[in-house]
Amino acid sequence: MTKSVLTVDDSRTMRDMVAFTLKGAGYEVAEAEDGKKAMDLAAGRRFDLVITDLNMPVMDGLALIRGLRALPSYKSTPILMLTTEADGAKKQEGKAAGATGWLVKPFNPEKLVQVVRTVCP
After folding, report:
1. Measuring CA to CA, which residue among 60, 11, 12, 19 is closest to residue 38?
2. What one-character-per-residue DSSP string does 32-76 give?
């Protein structure tokens, strides 16, 4: 069965790059441009993995992670942060919110697929 991934980023270019990379690796990909839209999508269906940016308008990545973790169906879903932030304090904040992992932009496509396959086999 094909695994489904929700990718959340306010940059269309970044969403396109992530979607292209993951579709090429056999994943089904849905996209949202901010945390609020991602929450709306997640409320309507179950994703096997969520990849989110940190800094976005309307609802940022940390608020999104906290919101998803509050939903019973997303308690144990892997959630990866994909952001330009490499600060240790931000990573801790992400981990505390419930992030499974942290990837720094720009991402290496092979590395992204490798990490996705590890957290969402």
Report:
1. 60
2. ESSHHHHHHHHHHS--SEEEE-SS-SSS-HHHHHHHHHTSGGGSS
Give the CATH number of the domain where residue 17 resides: 3.40.50.2300
10-residue stretch averages of pLDDT, the chain, 121 residues long: 94 96 97 97 95 95 97 95 88 94 92 95 85
> For the sheet containing 79-83, what is the strand order?
28-32, 4-8, 49-52, 79-83, 101-104
Count of H-run helices and E-run strands, the chain = 5, 5
Range of the domain at 37: 4-119
Token pair recorded at residue 72: 């019973």
- Looking at the structure of the chain, the number of domains it has is 1
Q: What is the pLDDT of residue 103?
A: 92
What gap in Å lies between CA 49 and CA 36, rounded to an integer?
17
